[in-house]
Amino acid sequence: MKRNLTCIVCPMGCQLEVELEDGKVTRVTGNTCKRGEAYGIAECTAPTRTLTTTVRVSGGTQPLVSVKTAAPIPKELLFDAMKVLRKLTVAAPVALGQVVMEDLCGTGIGVVAGKEVSAR
Amino acid sequence: MYDVAVIGAGVVGSLTARALTRYQLSVAVLERAEDVAMGTSKANSAIVHAGFDAPEGSNKALFNVRGNAMMEETAHELGVPFQRNGSMVLAFGPEDEEKIQELYERGQKNGVPGLCILTGDQARETEPALSPDVTAALLAPTGGIVCPYELTIAACGNAMDNGAALLTGFEVTGAERTAEGWRLSARDGRTLDARFVVNAAGLYADQVAALMGDESLHIHPRRGEYLLLDRKEGRTVSHTLFQTPSVMGKGVLVTPTVDGNLLLGPTSVDLADKEDLSSTAEGLAQVAKLASRSVPSVALRSVITSFAGLRACEDGHDFVLRAENHALHLAGIESPGLSAAPALAEEAVRLLGEMGCPLTPNPDFQPVRPHSPVFRRMDNAARAALIQQDPRYGRVVCRCETVTEGEIVAAIHQNPPARDVDGIKRRTRSGMGRCQGGFCGPQVVEILARELGIPMEQVTKMGGGSRMLAGPLGETEEEKA
Amino acid sequence: MKELDLVIIGGGPAGLAAAVSAYDAGVRSLLILDREQQAGGILEQCIHNGFGLHRFGEELTGPEYAARYIDEVKKREIPVQLETMVLDLQPLPDGSKLVTAVSSGGMLELKAKAVILAMGCRERSRGALNIPGTRPAGIYTAGAAQKFVNIKGYLPGRRVVILGSGDIGLIMARRMTLEGAKVEAVCELMPYSGGLNRNIVQCLEDFGIPLLLSHTIVEIHGKERVTGVTIAQVDENRRPIPETRQEIPCDTVLLSCGLIPENELTTAAGIPLDPVTSGAVVDQYRQTGCPGVFACGNVLHVHDLVDYVSEEAALAGESAAAWLRGESLSGESVSLIPKDGVRYLVPQQLRLPLKDDLRLYFRVGAIYDKATVEVRCGEKLIFSRKRPRLVPGEMESLVLKKSLLEGLDGPLTVGLSLEGESK
Questions:
Q1: Domain limit, last residue, from C257, C276, C302
Q2: Which domain range does residue B420 map to?
Q3: Closest to C125 (Cβ–Cβ): which among B435, B466, B478?
Q4: What is the pLDDT confidence band of residue B470, given thresholds at 50, 70 and 90?
Q5: Structural domains in chain C (count)
Q6: Three-state SS for C50?
Q7: Do B19 and B78 have their domain in common?
Q8: Are residues A20 and A41 in the same domain?
Q9: Which residue range(s) make up the domain with A24?
Q10: Does residue B379 sit at the A interface (CB-CB below 8 Å)?
Q11: What total of structural domains would you count in chain A?
Q12: Residue A102, in any domain of the structure
């Protein structure tokens, strides 16, 4: 199987062609550097994304706090993660870097606040 | 039972309602939209014409010249900016010159003061941005500019302050002659009784007249598209510049507005649909091209918005003022309707009096509308004093037009109250500037929700189904289902 | 009237970084004015990550990046006056500047020896784009939508068409999709996207959102709320091709069609602007045509990476400090002129002799593969560098050694020489 991707490592935007056999990458072409190859392999075997979103704050000076996953999570979990985070409310005050959820969707990856929200 | 019901809260209906509150009369203004000035009065050339266009003896000529003379005092009482900036009709060659001579003579007959014809060079001396192709110009020093919706809002507000009632969302769909006058019914089932009815329904005046038994009127919409330029271009010209009407068309005008923008337009296209306010690529391109003919340097890069307005054209091409059977129809009030409006209102009162409406002066009538503060028009000392009284006047919401939270809150609580984002925009100019609400929009929605005590997602742009937001973040539609 | 050495107009990333560097260069009498309730500027609503890779070597979200600078400002106890809108800026006969501002505390008049302009930019609106059609609810700039979603917590609509493939538009495509909206398409007038590759992949491709290049919205429909748009492909002159018109039902139109520096104060002060950047004309110190007035960040020219904003702002802050110390920032002026594919250059002027190496920022007008950037003085080639790929969406920079620019006898031009073909 072959997959075509645009490399996002740098502005070059190389068109990668990744050859796969039984879910394993056998060959990456079209890249002009090593980082491109690594990107191609990761993207075709275990693509991950850092999720950034907001969660509700109760009793705060602002209604929302921006959050992000402490590490990239598997790409296919993005919507499940959103479903969970939409239901979450954290109480003010919220500190920058505060862990608002320990383990997102069983990934073992936490969710941390990206800003400070003081209590009303 | 009201003494008079005025159908339509455009400039004519609002000024008529105001004129009626000078007498001891109970007055109701019925408006189908959810705010005043939502039809022709919302989007037009914002010009107070001198009065040389219409043929001698026509209602247009008579009321235009009279209304022009009244505008200064009316605007002053209502706290609405009005500038007599003068207008010019530009001639581009001998044929046009013949035509402006004709307009000059017509103007003399209509009683327009101060008209004179300038050579091209004389015209360019006063208006250096004029095209070198201009060969002559008819100068009318009494021509002026006023903001049509600001005038309408102020007139309706002043009428309400003097006791008139405004019923919005009241679309008259039935009229029944009663022993004392008329019973009007609305689409939503409400009814209202009045001894006399003034039909100032603009584009729909023919339909309202028909409901009342007069099927002789026929009004069709004529669409005009406009381009509005950034305030930094407002001084491109000082006069209102018309092109000489010819077989090629009426041309477009280039004019400063009282708010300091530059306005170009309109096109003129007859339509069937009285609701079709869409602008077109062709129309906007035509405005740009024709405006450049008068003022080649016009900065089309500085367009901040475009819009379209509909004029109410009656088949007879003159204003219709018809008093019969306890009803007064004011129909076909197309251009120069804005200019004529104060005089039409005065005439409406006279005609109602002739029909038997008792005109006992109202000793409590206050012609001056209490002036709520306009931050951008104040000097710094006055601003400082105001902020000390009310700190909300120190919070600038609209940065392009320098509109403060105090002004937005005032617009929601004064007559006629703003209920939606466009209502705030027309009353305060928040969102009217170069970013077109990009920055202030979210805050205006928030202030409206707070002051009206409604959830954010119920705030509308212009009433009805024009909601600004889908709803709070949370469950998606799929998750709900 | 309060007198200060330095007033910084705007407390976004540019203003904050300028304040920190001015302080570190010795300025103690300084004040940041910002119109919002909190400092940080537009970064507060940019909750996605990817900020700070150059500056901090890690990927931060917008609020995190802002927090780093807010911390630095706090550590130095640099005063920030929030919810304060500057209304006017005027040079005074004695060489100082009068800054007039308003807040709920009243009117504020400040006399400043130096001023740094850091007011940022605004988005091009529907009106400026002249899109025909009706004017219903549901038409937002991408940034306004972003504020509704990320700050206020409201979804502007559920079925979206985005015009313009600028980064904010791409980011909002993902954000609204994650919040349950359906983004039908992103239309881009140009044959290439103005957004970063990474955003095209992670914001559109990840969610199967089509990017329609050489397409535009030719009409907006709907009386009360948007009910749909008609889109069309455009020809090489960017004119819509009638046969390609198609209607897409939607309730929301987001516009991401470019940013315009907000230079109303600059203009009021009589400071000359560059018609291409829409920002002030500056020299290598980021000093404008008005001595003692400096500019940095998006008010000067639109950046795509905040890291470069911070870098430029630090330079403006240092320059303001030097100017306040009485160091000469004047000198013989030489123009920098963009040509052959280069759209603009910042700075636009050099003051000679140079005190430091010169970093030039520029943008190209189209996509170029295998281009050589050439800096010339007249016919003389001073510097050249090969670039594998240059795209309009990414700001470029190059550093010229001070020694290269000694003995300049005329304006410098910066242009591209092409080996391959431009696309």
A1: C257
A2: 375-458
A3: B435
A4: very high
A5: 3
A6: strand
A7: yes
A8: yes
A9: 2-46
A10: no
A11: 2
A12: yes
What does each C-alpha distance from B404 to B369, C247, C332 come to in angstroms?
A: 20, 40, 45
Choose one of B287, B310, B333: the last residue of a domain.
Answer: B310
The pLDDT, as a whole number, for residue B480 is 66
N-to-C CA span, chain C: 57
Which residue from B170, B149, B154, B152 is spatially nearest to B2, judged by alpha carbons? B170
B188 and B256 together in one domain: no
Same domain, B334 and B388: no
Question: What's the whole-number mean pLDDT along residues B153-174?
Answer: 98
Residue B475 lies in a domain: no
Nearest CA in chain B to C259: B435
Rounded distance between C-alpha atoms, residue B365 and residue B361, angstroms? 8
Which of C398, C408, C400, C394 has its CA nearest to residue C167? C394
Which residues of chain C are at the A interface, by a Cβ-Cβ cutoff of 8 Å? Answer: 44, 47-49, 59, 61-64, 66-67, 149-153, 175, 178-179, 196-198, 200-202, 205-206, 388-389, 391, 394
pLDDT at B41: 97
* Cα C171 from Cα C206, distance rounded (Å): 12
Q: Is the C-alpha dihedral spanning B242, B243, B249, B252 positive or negative?
A: negative
Which chain C residue has its CA at the smallest distance from B388's CA? C106
With beta carbons less than 8 A apart as the criterion, state whether B201 and B208 touch.
Answer: yes
CA distance C178 to chain A (A): 7
- Using a CB–CB cutoff of 8 Å, tell me whether B247 touches chain A: no
| B465 interfaces chain A, CB cutoff of 8 Å | no
Q: From CA C168, how far away is CA C194, in angstroms rounded?
A: 10
- B15 with B43, same domain? yes
Asked whether B314 and B326 are in contact (CB, 8 A), the reply is no
Distance of CA B148 to the CA centre of its chain: 3
Residues C239 and C188 in one domain: yes
Q: What amino acid is encoded at C224 in this protein? A: E
Give the span between the Cα atoms of B158 and B369, in whole angstroms. Answer: 5
B 355-384 residues inside an 8 A Cβ radius of C: 380, 383-384
**Angstrom distance (rounded) from CA B131 to CA B241:** 11
Structure-token pair, residue A24: 């394993």
- For position A64, which CATH number holds? 3.10.530.10
Q: Report the CATH number at residue B350.
A: 3.50.50.60
* Segment B434-444 mean pLDDT: 91
Q: What is the largest CA-CA distance in chain B?
A: 73
How far is the C-alpha of B163 from the C-alpha of B415, rounded, in Å?
A: 11
Instruction: Tell me, yes or no, whether B471 lies in a domain.
Output: no
Tell me, yes or no, whether A87 and A73 share the same domain. yes
Residue B387 lies in a domain: yes
Report phi then psi at A77, rounded to 5.
-90, 0
> Is A84 in a helix, a strand, or coil?
helix
Catalytically annotated residues of B = 49
The answer to whether residue B164 sits within a structural domain is yes
Same domain, C132 and C188: yes
Cα separation, B161 vs B470, in Å, equals 36
A86/chain B closest Cα distance in angstroms: 6
Kindly report, residue by residue over B126-141, the tens digit of the pLDDT.
999 999 999 999 999 9
Query: Looking at chain A, which residue has its C-alpha nearest residue C48?
Result: A52
B474 touching A (Cβ < 8 Å): yes
Q: What digits encode the pLDDT tens for the residues C293-312?
A: 999 999 999 998 899 999 99
Residues C51 and C154 in one domain: no
**What CA–CA distance (Å, rounded) separates C225 from B465?**
7
Answer yes or no: do A103 and A60 share one domain.
yes
The answer to whether residue A65 sits within a structural domain is yes
Based on the domain organization, do B149 and B46 belong to the same domain?
yes
Q: Is a pLDDT exceeding 90 seen at residue C127?
A: no
The residues pairing with B91 across neighbouring beta strands, listed in sequence order, are B136
**Which of residues B310, B337, B353 is at a domain's end?**
B310
Which helix (H) or strand (E) segment is B15 a member of?
Answer: helix B11-20
Give the span between the Cα atoms of C238 and B275, in whole angstroms: 31
Q: In B178-261, which ranges are E strands?
A: 182-186, 191-199, 219-229, 240-243, 253-256
